[in-house]
């Protein structure tokens, strides 16, 4: 028996919401761990795409950018096809396109805004998972699976949230969409299992993404945000989420399926503020 060597994640990673923020941090983590190809799927502008691509390519990993809207099924189907045309397969998928949604209370809920959150955060996860699974079902196992371990035709990680477990006032739309994400992940895990496809979710804690910066920059929002960070114990780093996603994606995690990993430094188990 010899020590393990070589890249941790040598395959091809397909990341929705990959041009910036957490999605791009995941792309960079895959690149650092030896991925041979990265696909960034997003609706951001060209400037964001180029910056996200630069961060991947400066590590030495080939990067493909694809403009696609996860709420449009044809866009996602095309994005998967373009990725496979370029790299031949998709080994790891991370579905991180998302929005914060409306802050309406339930009694004042604007149903169009409610539906937008469901379209992006729930249906978008469903559609991405659908076409990623279809591709992975066609594939042989990724190379390098250790002797005696089961093959892995693909791994999918969906972005849930601490709001997939708990909530607070004025977050009904977001909370419902993230509960749906967790449920979709569980069903997909059982459906993918016979095909050697693992499907899991991660639930990041509180990170200062572009989605929450406008909230944090108000007086009331800063007080609220500081309380969240205090309960979390410290400021979280984007790359901590990226590295966790990579680790959950590799074949060494072969028995981890249908799980929702909370990456929150104990936020969800800490009822106080320390």
Summarize the structure in words.
43% of the residues lie in helices and 14% in strands. The chain is built from eight helices and seven strands. Strand 1 (12-16), helix 1 (21-32) and strand 2 form a beta-alpha-beta unit. A seven-stranded parallel beta sheet has the order 3-2-1-4-5-6-7, with helices on both faces. The longest helix has 27 residues, at 111-137. The radius of gyration is 18 Å and the shape is globular. The model has no long low-confidence stretch (mean pLDDT 95). With 274 residues, it is α/β, with parallel strands linked by helices.
The outline comes out as globular
Structural class: alpha/beta
- Low-pLDDT ranges: none
Mean pLDDT: 95
Main beta-sheet annotation:
7 strands, parallel
Roughly what percent helix? 40-55%
Q: Count the strands?
A: 7
Task: Estimate the strand proportion.
Answer: 5-15%
Strand order of the largest sheet: 3-2-1-4-5-6-7
* Total of DSSP H or I helical runs spanning 4+ residues: 8
Q: What is the CA-atom radius of gyration, in angstroms?
A: 18 Å
Order of helices and strands: EHEHEHEHEHEHHHE
What's the end-to-end separation, in Å?
A: 46 Å
Keywords: NADP
Protein name: NAD(P)-binding protein
InterPro entries: NAD(P)-bd_dom_sf, SDR_fam
């Amino acid at each position: 028996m010899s020590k393990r060597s070589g890249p941790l994640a040598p395959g091809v990673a397909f990341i929705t919401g990959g041009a910036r923020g957490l999605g791009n941090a995941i792309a960079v983590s895959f690149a650092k761990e030896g991925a041979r190809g990265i696909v960034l799927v997003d609706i951001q502008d060209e400037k964001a795409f180029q910056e996200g691509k630069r961060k991947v390519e400066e590590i030495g990993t080939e990067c493909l950018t694809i403009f696609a809207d996860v709420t449009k099924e044809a866009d996602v189907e095309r994005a998967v096809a373009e990725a496979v045309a370029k790299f031949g397969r998709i080994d790891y998928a991370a579905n991180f396109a998302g929005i914060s949604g409306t802050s309406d209370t339930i009694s004042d809920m604007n149903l169009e805004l409610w539906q937008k959150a469901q379209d992006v955060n729930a249906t978008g996860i469903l559609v991405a998972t659908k076409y990623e699974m279809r591709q992975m079902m066609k594939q042989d196992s990724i190379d390098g699976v250790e002797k005696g371990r089961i093959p892995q035709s693909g791994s999918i990680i969906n972005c849930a949230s601490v709001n997939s477990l708990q909530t607070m006032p004025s977050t009904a739309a977001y909370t419902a969409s993230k509960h749906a994400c967790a449920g979709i992940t569980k069903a997909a895990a059982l459906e993918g299992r016979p095909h050697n496809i693992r499907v899991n979710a991660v639930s990041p804690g509180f990170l200062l993404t572009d989605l929450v910066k406008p909230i944090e920059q108000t007086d009331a929002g800063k007080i609220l945000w500081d309380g969240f960070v205090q309960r979390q114990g410290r400021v979280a780093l984007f790359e901590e989420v990226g590295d966790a996603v990579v680790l959950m994606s590799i074949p060494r995690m072969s028995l981890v399926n249908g799980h929702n990993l909370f990456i929150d430094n104990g936020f969800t188990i800490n009822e106080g503020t320390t």
